[in-house]
Write a structure and sequence with these properties.
The protein is 35% helix and 27% strand. The protein has 394 residues and is an alpha+beta fold. The chain starts with a strand and ends with a helix.
Length: 394
């Protein structure tokens, strides 16, 4: 599982929908030339809010939110956002309200279940009002109990719980939510979802709704993105924790999800340094370049015990020996550093030419004096993950 952020525009569509309201915000994509003409549809006599919609934290402090603006002013604000290099923005009607009407609501999926937090002192000053936060376990059969504990309207709690579960959210924050009797208006919303659930949620959200800050892409991610753009193979990389202990070279989307979920199930989600895959039969050079990026991340990590897990299902057509040859080239480039840092390499792989690939890899790692375990498909992915976790916990 990888937690990813979706656009506020999509989050608002989900929230307003479950609250029985129509969301009238407008999503702006600066890469589309018609964005200025689209704004002409806005009424001339209304006031608006404009925001960068790109998963940027502390937008208010960075000047990336403007409020109570005219149509003409909004166009200038958006041009300013575009000039700073942002691609996505959001324009929506300005909702006049009193500070006393602002509430903070957050729902988070944790190892111990779903937890909801609430404060009657919502808004941009919530960090200064942390003492006002109250939290409670949040389950379908007990949502009213949680709502009563937090003095939150029961119907609002139920509706938020439903959309949280239906959209496979891992985190939902509404700050502020303006509450006026039975009328609930989310003014600002942030949502993270489980990326592996994209298959199950239909049109609730798609990969096109995922957002990242313009400056957040790691150089390794950029390198792999460029590599993937020139290859028919599937190559992806996401840096989750630069100082993580578990580095992953995973082949196949299904196996990638299984491995990440199993690590999380064992309580080591925070140790996952990266996520992604190489599949679709990449050639030796492509696999070498991909593995080079992962190994550079590994060597830069400040974790005490580090493991490289090379794993995947039983491939249908990806040549194990060929891809392993590229990985061995990458390892050879930095084998002295790997030995010096006492890095362990654990392997579980199957597919065409697996016997040669596994034998060559075992011989290579032993000769390089790198601690290793090499398995074929006779060992389960779960067992390989358990070995990796045992190594970093030693």
């Amino acid at each position: 599982m990888s937690r990813v952020k979706i656009s506020e525009y999509k989050a608002k569509q989900l929230l307003f929908g479950v609250l029985g309201q129509e969301y009238t915000g407008m999503s702006i994509d600066f890469s589309q030339e018609q964005w200025r003409s689209d704004l002409q549809q806005l009424p001339d006599d209304q006031r608006f809010v404009a925001k960068v919609d790109q998963a940027v934290k502390k937008r208010n402090q960075l000047g990336l939110v403007t409020v109570n603006r005219s149509k003409a002013e909004i166009i200038g604000d958006l041009e300013g956002f575009q000039g700073q290099g942002y691609r996505y923005a959001l324009v929506e009607p300005f909702v006049a309200h009193e500070k006393e009407e602002e509430r903070y609501i957050a729902i988070q999926r944790t190892e111990n279940g779903v937890v909801i937090s609430y404060s009657s002192l919502g808004g941009v000053d919530i960090e200064n009002n942390a003492h006002s936060l109250v939290s409670a376990s949040f389950a379908e059969e007990a949502y009213s109990e949680a709502a009563n504990t937090l003095e939150l309207p029961n119907d609002l709690a139920k509706k938020l719980y439903d959309v949280f579960q239906d959209a496979h959210m891992t985190y939902l924050e509404i700050n502020p939510c303006v509450i006026r009797g039975q009328e609930y208006t989310p003014l600002d919303a942030a949502v993270e979802v489980d990326s592996s659930a994209a298959f199950f949620v239909g049109e609730a959200w798609t990969e096109a709704d995922v957002r990242t800050p313009k400056s957040s892409m790691h150089p390794a991610e950029k390198a792999v993105e460029e590599l993937a753009s020139k290859s028919p193979a599937s190559l992806s990389l996401k840096v989750l924790n630069p100082d993580g202990a578990l580095f992953l070279l995973l082949s196949g989307g299904g196996a990638s999800v299984v491995v990440a979920d199993e690590i999380s199930n064992l309580g080591h989600h925070e140790d996952i340094a990266n996520y992604g895959e190489y599949s679709g039969n990449p050639n030796e050079e492509e696999t070498y370049l991909y593995a080079t990026q992962v190994l550079a991340l590994l060597l830069a990590s400040r974790a005490g015990h580090k493991v490289l897990l090379i794993a995947g299902g039983v491939a249908n057509f990806t040549d194990v020996a060929k891809t392993f040859k590229g990985i061995m080239r990458a390892i050879k480039d930095v084998q002295n550093e790997l030995v010096a840092q006492n890095v362990a390499i654990l392997i579980r792989r199957g597919g065409p030419n697996q016997q040669k690939g596994l034998a060559d890899m075992k011989q290579f790692l032993d000769a390089a004096h790198i601690s290793n375990n090499v398995h074929g498909p006779d060992v389960s992915l779960a067992r390989a993950v358990a070995e990796a976790v045992e190594r970093i916990a030693a």
